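Page 42, continued from yesterday. The earlier attempt failed because a stray header line got pasted into the input along with the sequence. Redoing it now with the clean sequence only.
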Amino acid sequence: MKRIYLLFIATILLSGCSTSTSTPTLSLPPTEQTPNQLPEPTDHTQLKIVKAGETFDLVVPANSSTGYHWKLISEQDTNIVEFVAEDYLVEEPVMPGSGGMDVWTFRALDPGETKIVLGYYPPSNDTEPDETVTFLVRVE
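This time it went through. Structure tokens are written below.
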């Protein structure tokens, strides 16, 4: 019985003395990340000048994963511009919590000036925006 214990202890001690060979870690070439192709936000402090018949975009930062959303607050002068579409562009790479841009597309109809006001609303509250942005648009 003592032999078995001595043999067991000797095996443990000898295995600790053996040289370990580490497996080389393969280094993978870095992956090329897709550059962020999101449009820049539209500067609401600058007058937006467009020609009649053109479409134009108003771009605002957004994060739909939080439940926040943009809505038109005021009625713009429909003789000057008309709303065409709203689209959300997500930031790449797409990950939980990643943001993006809300793109509001309008068509310029006739010469004049109008205001377009967007409100950023929290989840489950469509009565009071947390933030508003006012764009002044001139159609020539």
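Notes: DSSP finds one helix and seven strands in the chain.
Reminder to self: strip header lines before submitting.
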